[in-house]
UniProtKB/TrEMBL annotation:
<keyword id="KW-0289">Folate biosynthesis</keyword>
<dbReference type="GO" id="GO:0046872">
    <property type="term" value="F:metal ion binding"/>
</dbReference>
<dbReference type="GO" id="GO:0005524">
    <property type="term" value="F:ATP binding"/>
</dbReference>
<dbReference type="GO" id="GO:0046656">
    <property type="term" value="P:folic acid biosynthetic process"/>
</dbReference>
<dbReference type="GO" id="GO:0005737">
    <property type="term" value="C:cytoplasm"/>
</dbReference>
<dbReference type="InterPro" id="IPR013221">
    <property type="entry name" value="Mur_ligase_cen"/>
</dbReference>
<dbReference type="InterPro" id="IPR001645">
    <property type="entry name" value="Folylpolyglutamate_synth"/>
</dbReference>
<keyword id="KW-0436">Ligase</keyword>
<keyword id="KW-0547">Nucleotide-binding</keyword>
<protein>
    <recommendedName>
        <fullName>Dihydrofolate synthase/folylpolyglutamate synthase</fullName>
        <ecNumber>6.3.2.12</ecNumber>
        <ecNumber>6.3.2.17</ecNumber>
    </recommendedName>
</protein>
<dbReference type="GO" id="GO:0008841">
    <property type="term" value="F:dihydrofolate synthase activity"/>
</dbReference>
<keyword id="KW-0067">ATP-binding</keyword>
<dbReference type="Pfam" id="PF02875">
    <property type="entry name" value="Mur_ligase_C"/>
</dbReference>
<keyword id="KW-0479">Metal-binding</keyword>
<comment type="function">
    <text>Functions in two distinct reactions of the de novo folate biosynthetic pathway. Catalyzes the addition of a glutamate residue to dihydropteroate (7,8-dihydropteroate or H2Pte) to form dihydrofolate (7,8-dihydrofolate monoglutamate or H2Pte-Glu). Also catalyzes successive additions of L-glutamate to tetrahydrofolate or 10-formyltetrahydrofolate or 5,10-methylenetetrahydrofolate, leading to folylpolyglutamate derivatives.</text>
</comment>
<comment type="pathway">
    <text>Cofactor biosynthesis; tetrahydrofolylpolyglutamate biosynthesis.</text>
</comment>
<dbReference type="InterPro" id="IPR004101">
    <property type="entry name" value="Mur_ligase_C"/>
</dbReference>
């Protein structure tokens, strides 16, 4: 099996990321247990921090991994979905699994998968893309003898395929509305699904602040005798913005006041994510881990998370963000530069929104939040699979904002239109690292690409990225 054949094999498996999540009756953890046991239960070979939440779980997972890597440990990270290559789901110390190792592991696991598939009931689908890539990551981490792994939940928690691990710490970042057709239509119901990752006697760090979901997490922790630390009572943050260059965060926990923490991720919401990561490190210290503060700070300072209010070009300013629900859309508009003060005699610089979404997301609510902050909108669709909302479907709702609305059937066409609206037909400049620290000029146009992880992923591949935006967390 070569690399292309390995990719083709994985792509041939059922992928709920592409077709949408099934009814909960199709989700069963025993399949994942069987697969992992068949390859030697590699997930039991290293301590795991398990991270769930509606918003911020990927960023918080990466922050924790980056901070622990800063202490000299060999730290693994499993997140999903991926931007460009499936290897991004199995990272050690900031580096994705090499292609040759990936190929060999796919070939090894494939024979086990076929044996398990043959024993499944006729009405059960074969092992999925997600289940197989989790097994591959765990096997890779085990053989590389990592010191720890941070594992992000795919969706929900209780029935997520990652929920076969017994973590040293469980982390729940936030609870808001998303995947309501699968997780429930109240915050309490969603919280109960996320709280499914809590294990008996294992400590929990929660960033949930709304009382309705927070009370559910407290109840589950009491029932399972799981020590709980909560945002508010046990740790707080104060975020100081540096604009698009990131911010500085002051964190106080039940253990200590941290020195100022610098992060190259913009947005007030990153303060909450950093506080969660710091509180998780404090919890690990209470479990006996030695984590020098200065090394944790350095690890966080080098943390990069693609597609999170990411400045990738300048002149015009180009920002990508994977916001795909109301809460993340609100965080985006709070973080991007506000409309500059322009003399009445001067035209305002264009602010172009490229927006695409998936059919199971509340795209109407996202558009209502986003559109007032832009002068033009381009409704686009990603092409990777069939879950994208047709641009024409969104036109009526988008037009209510009173700004010009265009549609584009492909990301490439959306990019061409955005450049035209921004007043240029040439590619934006690739900025030096220092250019990212400079505030947008009053007359600098802006293009913002958001609404779907898949749209951002496809459009990021169309343009070279600024060096600072893709620096690995271990550099």
């Amino acid at each position: 099996m070569n690399y292309e054949e390995a990719r083709a094999y994985l792509d041939s498996r059922v992928s709920y990321e592409k077709r949408g999540m099934p009814e909960s009756t199709e989700l069963r953890l025993d399949r994942m247990v069987t697969l992992l046991e068949a390859i030697g239960s590699p997930h039991a070979d290293f301590p795991i921090i398990h991270v769930a939440g509606t918003k911020g779980k990927g960023t918080t997972s990466t922050m924790i991994a980056s901070m622990l890597t800063g202490t000299g440990r060999k730290v693994a990270l499993h997140t999903s979905p991926h931007f460009e290559r499936v290897e991004e789901r199995a990272v050690i110390s900031g580096e994705p699994i090499p292609g040759d190792r990936f190929t060999r592991l796919v070939e090894e696991i494939a024979s086990v998968v076929e044996e398990i598939d043959a024993k499944l009931a006729p009405d059960q689908p074969g092992l999925t893309f997600f289940e197989i890539t989790i097994a591959l990551a765990m096997l890779y981490f085990s053989r590389e003898q990592v010191d720890a792994a941070v594992v992000e939940v795919g969706m929900g928690g209780r029935l997520d395929s990652t929920n076969v691990v017994i973590p040293v710490v469980s982390v729940i970042t936030s609870i808001s509305f998303d995947h309501t057709n699968r997780l429930g239509n109240t915050l309490a119901a969603i919280a109960r699904e996320k709280a499914g990752i809590i294990k008996t006697g294992r400590p929990v760090v929660s960033g949930v602040v709304k009382e309705e979901p927070a009370s559910v997490i407290r109840e589950v922790c009491r029932h399972l005798h799981a020590p709980l630390r909560e945002a508010g009572p046990d740790f707080v943050d104060q975020y100081h913005s540096k604009g698009l260059a990131g911010g500085r965060v002051e964190v106080s926990t039940w253990r200590r006041s941290w020195p100022p923490l610098d992060v190259a991720l913009p947005g007030r919401h990153q303060g909450a994510n950093i506080a969660l990561a710091a509180a998780t490190c404090d919890t690990l210290e209470e479990l006996g881990w030695t984590l020098p503060t200065e090394q944790l700070k350095q690890g966080l300072r080098l943390c990069r998370v693609p597609g999170r209010i990411e400045t990738i070009r300048r002149h015009p300013l180009v920002i990508t963000d994977v916001a795909h629900n109301e809460a993340s859309a609100s965080a985006l508009v709070a973080a991007i530069p506000s409309r500059p003060e322009i003399p009445p005699s001067s035209p305002s610089p264009p602010r172009v929104l490229i927006f695409g979404s998936s059919v199971d997301k509340d795209w109407r609510a996202m558009l209502a939040i986003l559109l007032p902050h832009f002068s033009h909108a381009i409704l686009a669709r990603y092409v990777a699979h069939g879950r994208a909302v047709e641009p024409s479907t969104m036109v009526e709702d988008a037009s209510r904002a009173g700004i010009p609305v265009l549609t584009a059937e492909t990301p490439a066409r959306a990019w061409e239109e955005a450049l035209r609206l921004a007043g240029t037909t040439e590619e934006p400049q690739e900025p030096a690292s220092s250019d990212l620290d400079v505030a947008p000029l009053p007359d600098e146009p802006m293009i913002c690409i958001t609404g779907s992880f898949f749209l951002v992923a496809e459009m990021r591949t169309m343009m070279p990225l600024a060096e600072a935006s893709v620096r690995p967390i271990s550099s």
